[in-house]
């Protein structure tokens, strides 16, 4: 992931991070959380936790490696199987409200990481104030039907900056089952622990 933050004075700060994500044959997902570092840095972003989700039980678990704690909750409904941007492009239905300030374009197909993907770009124009220039905010999605995930997501807002998230290093091997477990010695957040005698 690469992020560009636009400061009030107009200067930009460029940050980056990497994370490992995985999905097993049962559909369980883990997604690392790591710190952001300067784009110019060669430092490896620190792992600060992981999010684990099991669609069969709808249990979502957040693990905090810094505090050595975890918290769980049950999601009310399962996540959508296909992102809205892909649904709109394939069915002809737009996800943005249609008016003079919004636009959606089909970017067609291309290959990313050896996988066929389909692209959609959504644009929203914020009208100018006091005779100034309007602002165009864009979101771009490149969806892999084979993996059922977006391989690339790009968001750009000239007022605040942008984010690019890209999936690389795709492997079809089954993830280590330990990645879906709460590490030994971690305690549930918010639960008071009894002092050991």
Describe the protein's topology.
Layout: E1 2-6, E2 12-16, E3 21-23, E4 29-34, E5 37-38, E6 47-54, E7 59-64, E8 69-74, H1 84-91, E9 102-112, E10 115-126, E11 135-144, E12 149-157, E13 161-166, E14 187-188
Parallel strand pairs: 8-14
Antiparallel strand pairs: 1-2, 1-13, 2-5, 3-4, 4-6, 6-7, 7-8, 9-10, 10-11, 11-12, 12-13
Any overview of this molecule?
This protein is mainly β and 197 residues long. It has one domain (2-183). 4% of the residues lie in helices and 46% in strands. The chain contains one helix and 14 strands. Strands 5-2-1-13-12-11-10-9 form an eight-stranded antiparallel β-sheet, covered by helices on one side. Mean pLDDT is 87; it is low at 85-94.
State the order of secondary-structure elements, H for helix, E for strand. EEEEEEEEHEEEEEE
The major β-sheet equals: 8 strands, antiparallel
β-sheet strand percentage: over 45%
| Percent of residues in helices | under 10%
Strand arrangement, largest sheet? 5-2-1-13-12-11-10-9
